[in-house]
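Table S2 (text version). Query chain:
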Amino acid sequence: MARRRPILVAVRLTPDESADWRAKAKAAGVPLSALIRRAMARTRTWTVPAAEVERDRTRQVSRIGNNLNQIAKWANTHKGAVEAVEVIGHLIAIKRALAALARFESPDRDAR
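Corresponding structure-token output:
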């Protein structure tokens, strides 16, 4: 037996958006309301603190990527004189930095 859903939520759309949503629902073989409920069930939200943690994580990964690019450029420029110990040392530092980022608490993406 279908679950009764007495609450109606109104959403303003352009005619094109409405047509697009209805076409997607038809292609999925479900009513529009079911498609929207499914989409919302998969949607993750961010709390303000979690968003800040994610921004910080993104900055850190960007810095690590920049360092990795500098190491690659240096290694390609000095192919004949590459000092493997120095390159390996930099790569170990990058590995440690990535491990430290992995220890960050995951952002709360399910906050409502």
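Notes on Table S2: Confidence is low (pLDDT under 50) at residues 105-112. The chain has four helices and no strands.
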